[in-house]
Design a protein that fits this description.
Blueprint lengths: L7 H18 L3 H25 L7 H8 L10 H13 L7 H13 L3 H17 L7 H20 L47 H9 L5 H22 L11 E5 L5 H14 L8 E4 L1 H4 L7 H12 L3 E4 L14 H15 L5 E6 L1 H9 L2 H6 L3 E4 L4 H14 L3 E2 L1 H16 L8 H19 L7 H5 E2 L1 H4 L9
Parallel strand pairs: 1-4, 1-5, 2-3, 3-4, 6-7
Helix pairs in contact: 1-6, 2-4, 2-5, 2-6, 2-7, 6-7, 8-10, 12-13, 16-17, 16-18
């Protein structure tokens, strides 16, 4: 066995943990049961497709052990499985979405959730486990995994289900050979700023960024905390320039709050603010969650986490649902490996990397207590309260304005009433600003269907949202 290759028991553990984690995300009992019932068979079929994509002319005992690992952690596999795997790989035809995926999308449409897109990322990681059966992930295997993900993402797109971040791509895991050394550029080589290139847009000033912060809906306490932090950093720099002592201070932050409360928006603004006052050389924001840092097989998590950190150096690394990195009960969980790599790089890049970790309040507290290094580096907390009904309506109005739509007086009255009711009747699945965005996108789709029936619609008609655009029409009663 090659160094770094996984055993069948390790594959079983990683597979079981990934499936269990996703099952816990599904709040609906019937949907959870359907997922549990169908998932093993679905992933066994996918494993066969991965190996066919790699042109596996010879099925080895490791293929059979990995195939068996979906059900069992035992390395020993029944002899009959060999023929099942060999014939399955030879006869694999076409990727088919699992039956429960339609139910996931339907749930997301009703609740404004993101379960379907989360499943796509989990599927990508699980299929990469099986692609690594020989210790190598080839371009053809990664291509197959991406094509499977694209099929599911296309279905999400048809249902209007958008994600908060780009979908995970298998290309990032391809086992690449080192690139040959590049020749030094000649004097005739074009420069980065050659003639004819459009000049870079001017960077926003500190005053413009602070005005943008003030323009955010709600978040009064967060705005005050950001302003206080920026003032503190500005004075520290002035003291340094004046040759005065400056006590050590960590600029890494913890954002606590529910999804859809503006955490990513504020993190992006903070990155620009840090750059504007000279704390960070670039000021970009790199946003990830556990799936963007953790790989499902030995030796890849440290590499993947390091690659993400390299992209963030000079700016801010924003880790959403960071508590998922410490969710494994076993100390060998790959999430903990990602934490160790993160802590080392935070120490190595004290002057050009700021990390913001975000998530629900109670899980984040457990996450920070899981490692002494985390507690010592993250000592500033920003609390993001849920938006109230009035603020949700302001967000909806802002979305209309930014996208060239106008609420009619009756439409504004109805939208406000519905958003106030949404807030008053909120439950644990309440998505805050994400629910507002989903409602806006649905309203635009209904308005498009209505306006498309008009002959030569006016500019005002193209922009106006009426009450009927804001509510799903009732289904006709069946006889």
């Amino acid at each position: 066995m090659k160094p770094g290759m996984m055993t069948a028991a390790q594959v079983h553990k990683q597979y079981s943990e990934a499936v269990t984690a996703f099952r816990r995300w599904v709040p609906d009992p019937a949907l959870r049961q359907a997922f549990q019932r169908e998932t093993d068979g679905f992933f066994r079929r996918c494993a066969l497709g991965v190996w066919q994509a790699d042109n596996a002319s010879e099925i080895t005992p490791r293929h059979v052990e990995f195939y068996n690992a979906i059900y069992s952690g035992q390395a020993a596999s029944p002899a009959a499985l060999y023929w099942e795997v060999a014939s399955g790989v030879a006869n694999y035809d076409l990727f088919q979405p699992p039956a429960f995926f339609a139910s996931l999308r339907e749930y997301d449409r009703r609740k404004g959730a993101t379960l379907a897109r989360r499943f796509v990322d989990q599927m990508t990681l699980i299929l990469l486990l099986f692609a690594a059966v020989d210790g190598v992930i080839s371009e053809s295997e990664a291509g197959f995994v991406n094509s499977c993900a694209d099929v599911l993402l296309e279905l999400c797109g048809k249902d209007g289900l958008t994600g908060d971040r780009p979908a995970l791509k298998a290309d990032e895991f391809i086992s690449r050979r080192p690139a040959p050394p590049q020749e030094a550029p000649t004097e005739a080589a074009p420069t980065a700023e050659g003639p004819g290139e459009a000049p870079a847009e001017p960077e926003p000033t500190l005053e413009e960024l602070m005005a943008e912060l003030d323009g955010l809906c709600g978040l009064q306490k967060v705005k005050e905390d950001v302003k206080s932090l920026i003032n503190l950093v500005k004075v520290r720099k002035l003291r340094e320039e004046a040759g005065l002592p400056v006590p050590p201070m960590s600029l890494h932050l913890v954002f606590l709050g529910n999804p859809g409360t503006g955490k990513t928006t504020v993190a992006r603004l903070l990155a620009k603010l840090y750059h504007a006052i000279g704390v960070l050389p670039k000021g970009q924001l790199v946003e990830v969650d556990r799936s963007g840092l953790v790989a499902g097989f030995v030796g890849q998590t440290a590499l993947k986490t390091s690659e993400v950190i390299q992209k963030a150096i000079g700016g801010v690394l924003f880790i959403d649902e960071a508590y998922a990195l410490a969710s494994g009960e076993n100390s060998s969980d790959f999430g903990r490996e990602a934490i160790e790599v993160l802590l080392k790089n935070m120490e190595d890049h004290r002057k050009d990397l700021i990390v913001i970790v975000a998530g629900y309040a109670k899980p984040m507290e457990r996450f920070l207590h899981s490692n002494p290094g985390l507690e010592s580096r993250f000592n500033k907390y920003f609390y993001f309260e849920d938006y109230n009904g009035e603020e949700l309506f302001s967000i909806f109005q802002s979305m209309c304005q930014k996208n060239g739509y106008v609420l009619s007086p009756q439409g504004a009255e109805q939208a406000k009433a519905e958003l106030l009711e949404l807030y008053e009747n909120r439950d644990e699945n309440f998505g805050k600003a994400r629910d507002v965005r989903n409602r806006f996108e649905q309203a635009v789709a209904r308005q498009s269907n209505r306006v498309a029936q008009l002959d030569s619609p006016t500019r005002e008609q193209l922009m106006e949202l009426l009450p009927e655009d804001l509510t799903e029409p009732e289904a006709p009663e069946k006889d």
